[in-house]
Specification:
Order of helices and strands: EHEHEEHH
Largest sheet: 4 strands, parallel
CATH topology: Rossmann fold
CATH architecture: 3-Layer(aba) Sandwich
CATH class: Alpha Beta
Radius of gyration: 15 Å
Structural class: alpha/beta
Strand order of the largest sheet: 2-1-3-4
Helix content: 25-40%
Strand content: 5-15%
Number of helices: 4
Length: 167
């Protein structure tokens, strides 16, 4: 059953081609209508598209890739853009990557993942990096989607999402 007022979650990364795409598709797949996920990048490259290995990993996991696209977060600043309840950055601070900052009042959290598109080796090695990233994202999303969201305030949602970063 789809909630008439799902919580909107925006996953941000730099290029919006791998981690944020994996998170968007996975949350939409598993949320049972409690959430509506989106993704964007702070600075996607010109003509950026989702990483083909990200799409292949999602498809192998039985997760739809329909409608996925790489886009700038600027589209979420437009007047008709959906209001975000939660913004989660998924870039990897530990690798010195600059994570985007989202202005405004949504709850925010940081779930850092190494960039699977930076994996070095054969296609099998690279696909394994994408698979492992998807597993890590799904683990946190399993916990997030199991929460009784109707009773969560913005502060509780933010605290919970930040706690999930430690899982």
């Amino acid at each position: 059953m789809t909630d008439p007022n799902p919580l909107n979650v925006l996953f941000l990364c730099t290029h919006n081609s791998a981690r944020s795409i994996l998170a968007e598709a996975t949350l939409n797949h598993m949320s049972k209508g409690k959430f509506k996920a989106y993704s964007a990048g702070s600075s996607p490259r010109d003509n950026q598209i989702p990483n083909p290995m990200a799409l292949q990993t999602l498809e192998k996991a039985g997760i739809s890739t329909e409608g996925l696209s790489s886009k700038s977060w600027d589209i979420f600043a437009l007047p008709d853009a959906p209001h975000m309840d939660l913004v989660i950055t998924v870039c990897d601070n530990a690798a010195g990557e600059v994570c985007p900052y989202w202005p405004g009042q949504p709850a925010t959290a940081h779930w850092g993942y190494p960039d699977p598109s930076e994996a070095v080796g054969s296609d099998e090695v690279k696909l394994e990096a994408f698979k492992q990233t998807l597993i890590q994202i799904k683990r946190r999303l399993d916990l997030l989607t199991s929460l009784p969201l109707a009773s969560l305030s913005k502060m509780a949602l933010e605290n919970t999402a930040r706690e999930l970063a430690k899982k």
